[in-house]
Amino acid sequence: MSIRLLIADDHPLIRAGLPIMLEGSGIEIVGNLGSAESAEAQYAELKPDVILMDVRMPDDDGLLALDRIRQKDPAVKVVMFSAWDNMTFVARAVALGALDYVLKSSSRDEIITSIKNAAAGIDEPVGKDFKRIQLLMNRIKRMEPVDGTRLSPRELQVATNIALGLSNREIGFSMGISVETVKEHVQNVLRKIPATDRTAAAVWVIKQGLMDV
Whole-angstrom Cα distance, residue 92 to residue 187? Predict the structure, then answer.
């Protein structure tokens, strides 16, 4: 049985090229759409096995679209597809439940493997930074206080997620806590470490060596 794929990408050349690239791969394109909004609107009707979602589109942020679709269907399988080799985007994708983050410069085999792994529920992402960020986030969830600081384990976890560039909502999603609780932890972090804003907090986390996997 073929894998049903929904593509959401605003670049006409990408949408024209992917069907050619995927010929003979066992992947059937059931939708080839130019916006995140249209993917959200047609997802339930098209019932794809996997969504290949562009990260940056003029009408919307593909990562925010991922978030909204997952709120409706937590079991949805999404591979983020991007020209941007950006750690913050990768971290957001991991936090929001994407199964991979594949660059548009990837080979045909890599793109097909990513889609097939996602469809099969195999946790073997192709994206070069995706697994590293997954491991880092798993380690963040187990963090203990750092010597010389008064941060609680939860506050340390929040501070490290801030350094990854996550929003309060994304931090809450990845840690399983409410946005209100995240906001409270953020305020506590900024009071307890030498930082007056999120950027300074991120610098502090990096200087503490907490971003190494």
Answer: 21
